[in-house]
Amino acid sequence: MPAALLTAAQIAATAVLVAWMIAGFTRRPGRWMRYLLFSRATFVIIDLTGTKDGHSEPVNPYAFLSPGTFLLPPPQLQAVVDHLIRAGRYDRIDGRGRCLSVKGEQPIEVRDSRVAL
After folding, report:
1. Residue 59 in contact with residue 90, Cβ under 8 Å?
2. What kind and span of H or E run contains 5?
3. Reduced to 3 DSSP states, what percent helix, strand and coil does the chain have, rounded to the nearest 5?
């Protein structure tokens, strides 16, 4: 195969790949992570504070998920909060953060151990 033909094929393949990546990353289901892989995911970025007997401390909800789990949608966040309350670790949990989904970025709050969008 002539060297010029091989170079032209490589340039064309590279241009197609770049165009495909640009198209994938510019769709706007939300402000964060526009790529199609992330546009179907729903997850929460939140700061939680647990209170027990008047003493408050930060709560890391990811410490109570299965190893390798990194997406925390609101129903799983509520399940973690319910577990911590039932287990007696905290009397109440509160916090504020952002919920990222196909609908975009929305505020999310945990008030008196209930998740509210």
Report:
1. yes
2. helix 3-25
3. 40, 30, 30
Residue pointed to by tokens 């992330």: 38
Amino acid at the residue 43: F
- Residue whose pair of structure tokens reads 């989904």 in the numeric block: 101
> Alpha helix (H) ranges present in 26-112?
36-39, 74-86
Q: pTM for the full model?
A: 0.65
Q: Per-residue pLDDT for the chain (117 aa), expressed as one digit of tens each?
A: 566 666 888 889 898 888 877 766 655 555 555 555 555 678 899 999 999 999 999 999 988 888 877 788 999 999 999 999 999 999 999 999 999 887 788 999 999 999 998
C-alpha 25/C-alpha 31 separation (Å) is 11
HSE of 59, CA atoms in CB hemisphere, 13 A: 27
Q: Which CA distances in Å does 64 have to 6, 25, 46, 81, 114?
A: 53, 32, 14, 10, 17
Give the residue from 29, 90, 56, 36 showing the smallest Cα distance to 82: 90
Q: What gap in Å lies between CA 78 and CA 83, rounded to an integer? A: 9
